[in-house]
Specification:
With 223 residues, this protein is an alpha+beta fold. Helices cover 21% and strands 43% of the residues. The protein has three helices and twelve strands, in the order ααββββββββαββββ. The strands form two sheets. Strands 3, 4, 5, 6, 7, 9, 10 and 12 form an eight-stranded antiparallel sheet that branches. It has a four-stranded antiparallel sheet with strand order 8-2-1-11. The relative contact order is 0.17. The structure holds 2-acetamido-2-deoxy-beta-D-glucopyranose (NAG) (3 copies). Its main location: membrane. One of its GO terms (biological process) is defense response to other organism.
């Protein structure tokens, strides 16, 4: 038995009004062509919806980070502490949209340790992000004896991490973005938890594990 007859008897081409007692020879090809056409059109619609109707927020991650200095002078109370630091972070944002570019407002970068911000000085200028492209930034901050409002737990956390030379620092980027062809301005926050190994001058390079960032975006219309 030919494969299409077998397929027909199992009801495979019933949508083509195939009479299963008859010889299906003449209609299976037609049926296969229609099936292919329907699948092709459905695929095209899905592709067009993804390319033009839906918008996707960027994805982000840190590619590299260098911590040259991270020293705390604990105060009494802990909120009177002072911090000296030098940090450079390289991060990348990818625009996953097939067709839509994204315009970003100037980006504010803030670093915190144990939930207390210690640097808000860095910014990234406004830029346009082409579809399907990855944009890379370097954020460099430094300070000497800058006041930091640590919690008591922050001093404890610093002492514990100071013993290992590895510090948990969070980088947060805040901006607003606008998808090309849409009116809405969409708030966007990129939160990058970093585990930074203090550079040891006796070791040439310090390994950095690439880490994904958390993307928070408004789920309103047009965003
Ligand atoms: C601050 O450090 C304490 C002590 O290590 C820890 O329990 C707490 O979760 C930390 N808080 C934040 C916001 O990281
Ligand atoms: C660390 O930061 C301070 C303050 O911004 C700066 O003066 C110093 O040159 C930096 N040190 C290094 C090694 O980058
Ligand atoms: C952190 O560690 C360094 C050297 O490992 C030490 O000199 C410094 O006193 C420590 N700081 C605190 C606040 O414990």
């Amino acid at each position: 038995m030919a494969f299409w007859e077998d397929w027909c008897r199992r009801g495979g081409c019933c949508s083509c009004d195939c009479d299963c007692d008859c010889d299906c020879d003449c209609s299976w090809k037609e049926c296969a062509i229609w099936t292919a056409v329907v699948a092709g059109v459905a695929g095209l619609i899905v592709l067009l919806v993804f390319a033009f109707a839906l918008v996707f927020p960027p994805k982000g991650g840190t590619d590299d980070a260098v911590l040259q200095r991270f020293a705390l002078a604990p105060g009494t109370p802990a909120s009177n502490s002072a911090i000296s630091y030098n940090v450079t972070v390289t991060l990348s944002l990818r625009n996953p949209n097939l067709y839509r570019g994204i315009s970003y407002d100037p980006v504010a970068a803030a670093f915190s340790f144990n939930g207390s911000r210690f640097d808000e000085s860095a910014t990234v200028p406004a830029f346009y992000h082409k579809p399907r492209k990855t944009a890379t930034f370097h954020v460099t901050v430094g300070g000497v004896d800058k006041p930091v409002k640590l919690a008591a737990a922050g001093v404890t956390a610093f002492k514990a991490e100071n013993a290992t030379g590895k510090f948990d620092v969070e980088l947060r980027l805040d901006t607003a973005m606008q998808f090309k062809g849409r009116k809405a301005r969409c708030p966007l926050a990129v939160i990058c938890p970093l585990e930074l190994q203090l550079v040891d001058p006796n070791v040439a390079t310090t390994a950095f594990q690439k880490t994904p960032c958390i993307i928070l975006h408004a789920k309103k219309s047009g965003c």
